[in-house]
Amino acid sequence: MNFHNILINWYLQNERDLPWRKTTNPYLIWLSEIMLQQTRVAQGMPYFFSFTKEFPTVFDLANADEEQVLKLWQGLGYYSRARNLHKTAQYVANELNGVFPPSYKELLKLKGVGEYTAAAIASFSYNEAVPVVDGNVFRLLSRYFDIESDITSPAAKKEFTELARELMPKDNPAIFNQAIMEFGALQCVPKSPNCTICVFNDSCLALQKKKVDVLPVKSKKTKVTNRFFNYLILEDILGNTLIQKRTAKGIWHNLYEFPLLETQEIADFDFVSKAVQNEVFSAYTIIGIEECSHATIIHKLSHQHLHIQFWKIKIEEIIEKGVDANNLKTFPFPIVIYNFIEKQEINC
């Protein structure tokens, strides 16, 4: 029995019951694929249900306000995905009359749609014979065929794509693509896979050569930058506070935050107090400054570790366009700030 038959038979017995597998609607498949980029299925599932309930068609998503989209996306991370999702929905709705491009090459032209996502939509919606190659596929193929190519290199991406194309049955590419991704997600997992129950354990070269733990080869390491954020929570005599929108390029674009004092290291009370009174809020009469948490929160992003402290600053004046506690939660925040608000630590 050849590779794809073994794989597909395994899939038919082990596939997870996922909502986007019950449709060929390109809108729903596109939505799920964008959400699952760098996101686990368990984490992405509730968001998929929320989005499809709020925006059942691409027209509904296109007509939404960006802040509404970002608010619904809150906590899923990599917020550029949400912004691109919204822009692409507008393009498909307004320029393509709500019809998604029916081919891999045309799908690639959509904002936020790369080779993997385009291949997934093309095969799952239109049964086009184009292979999907993600981390799960790299891992399975590198182990099964003992391929030591560095998967971060463009040459390796091409090599694995061509190999997957050769293995794919041209009459049923959709189920093959689902199967190969599912196998990597459930069976050929990154760490300590249970090879004793694997359907490929009599033919996997990595298992035979005791190389399962070293494949795939990934030499490129992410350089992590440490940043130190001090969020300044202004509170006036009405209990209102001040927030701002992050409009600069970089993390959390178009999300909201409290006024930010970024420092070179973890700041102490004296430093923050002087900065607040002499620079940041010099126009206000400050009657109290208090640190809101006993320990610095470390929020880890893919390339940055954010060391976050929250400070409450009470003032005598009324904040112009101040936001009250009820309205505060309606704005889209980075999840680390939203969680802080939810726990009512804003009250210190």
Automatic annotation (TrEMBL):
Enumerate the catalysed reactions: Hydrolyzes free adenine bases from 7,8-dihydro-8-oxoguanine:adenine mismatched double-stranded DNA, leaving an apurinic site
HhH-GPD domain residues: 35-186
Which Gene Ontology terms describe the biological processes this protein takes part in?
Answer: base-excision repair; mismatch repair
Domain of life according to the entry: Bacteria
Which protein are we looking at?
A: Adenine DNA glycosylase
Quote the record's cofactor note. Binds 1 [4Fe-4S] cluster.
Q: What organism is recorded for this protein? A: Flavobacterium cupreum
Protein family per UniProt: Belongs to the Nth/MutY family.
